[in-house]
Amino acid sequence: FTAHDLWAMLGGRPAAWLRIFDEVDRVVVHSRRAAAELPRRGVAPERVVRIPHPVFSAARPAEPTRDGHTLLSFGLIRAYKGIDLLLEALPEIERAVPDVRLVIAGDSHDAVGPFRVLSDRLGVADRVEWRLGFHPEVDIESLMASTTAVVLPYRRWVDSSGVLATALGHGVPVVATDVGNLGETVEEFGAGEVVPPEDVGALAGACVRLLTDVGARERAEAGALAARKELTWEHSAELHERLYRSIAEPRPVR
User: FRET label pair with 120: which of 45, 167, 184, 246, CA 20 to 30 Å apart?
Assistant: First the structure.
């Protein structure tokens, strides 16, 4: 069983999910945090297997812009993803990068009205470009190609993120909070900046570094491309097949 969104499971009906985990031979998770958490919840460590989430690659890596002023918040708009924190960081970012632009693109699951009001109150509404709605693949290619960094200021743990997988798959640097697999993946590959959750000052500083420090940005781009090369669907399939073979091997009869 793959516990793709483990933290939502444990936060909602933990007892029910733990009973399900007890019924299967292995539980696959995507992050080291999840692999450590399940044994604390009573799942035998030898039954927990970490297989990193593959990236969603473009036909070829995007050529990230070198203008150093575009940030992207992409994906389904949810309050726990911290868009308000990014907006609160924007005035400080603007002081260091006067031509900064924040693109917020995605379907609005939660109301966007409060975010618009917040951007007006902070005086950064003219720095924010809203692209609401579903974005087909061709739009995603364009968004990633014109972005200096993707920002993921999530408040709570997620065991994997499709947005992170998309950014890395397009060779785009990432600023992420240290939750779930976000921070550990960015740090493992050196693909950007990692900050504590809900720390607006640290979030602003990390964005400024990637926007203004060409060397840091180039290192992060190289890290994103390294993740793109390693975290392939082919490699994930090999790890799953190896796992399935180990489960299917005959066991001694007691």
Answer: 167
